[in-house]
Q: What sequence folds into this?
């Protein structure tokens, strides 16, 4: 049972969020949903204790409410931040597991909000770095250090090309090298899930981008070859308690 007297929102209030949750559950009120959103999540990264306390209710409503599904996903995507609510998040483990199943069903329906749901699914799997970084591969860039020479390498995956390069702020991306995509047989773990799910749901462009993201790149500076996803994840994966 949530002790709401300890669960402040972004305004420091402890009584408004439970009242709003009751209101949206009974009436599905648009104004109440809007107020919930800005009380629970501030800007891009901050989630307040009331947000994590509200997760079980939001996830329970998610099967019949797109607003609940979206707000629960928004909160989960920010769960790797410094919020001091790890105990509240741990208490939601069962609800999050059920939420992952619900999100997968929604993905299978090939919805208009496919990419957002895909990112929410990654957050529900605690793959927060991919949830924050993955785009639709029309104009995606990843910046990382070559593991052999430490040169900063730009990885481009989009309509403009699929390459590694050295970024020159006057000349643009120079000394480009073509990326080497992973085959479906080579993919494992999260990369395999991402690729197979995108293919299953008819998202060929997303699947192709993921194959390149989990493939290999050549450093234009030292010509060494490295795994893109491994280097990006090691530099960006949050340390979880």
A:
């Amino acid at each position: 049972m949530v002790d709401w007297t300890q669960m402040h929102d972004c305004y420091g209030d402890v009584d408004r969020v439970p009242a709003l949750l009751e209101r949206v559950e009974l009436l599905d009120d648009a104004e109440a949903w809007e107020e919930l959103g800005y009380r629970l999540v501030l800007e891009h990264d901050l989630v307040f204790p009331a947000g994590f306390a509200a997760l079980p209710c939001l996830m329970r409503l998610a099967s019949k409410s797109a607003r609940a599904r979206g707000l629960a996903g928004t909160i989960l995507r920010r769960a790797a931040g410094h919020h001091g609510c790890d105990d509240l998040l741990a208490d939601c483990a069962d609800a999050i597991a059920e939420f992952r199943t619900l999100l997968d069903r929604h993905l299978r329906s090939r919805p208009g909000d496919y990419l957002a749901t895909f990112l929410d699914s990654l957050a529900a799997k605690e793959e927060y770095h991919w949830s924050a970084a993955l785009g639709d591969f029309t104009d995606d860039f990843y910046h990382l250090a070559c593991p052999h020479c430490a040169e900063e390498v730009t990885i481009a995956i989009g309509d403009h090309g699929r390459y590694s390069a050295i970024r020159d702020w006057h000349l643009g991306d120079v000394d480009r090298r073509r990326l080497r995509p992973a085959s479906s047989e080579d993919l494992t773990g999260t990369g395999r899930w991402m690729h197979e799910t995108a293919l299953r749901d008819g998202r060929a462009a997303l699947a192709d981008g993921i194959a390149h993201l989990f493939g290999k790149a050549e450093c234009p500076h030292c010509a060494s070859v490295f795994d893109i996803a491994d280097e990006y994840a090691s530099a960006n994966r949050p340390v979880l308690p």
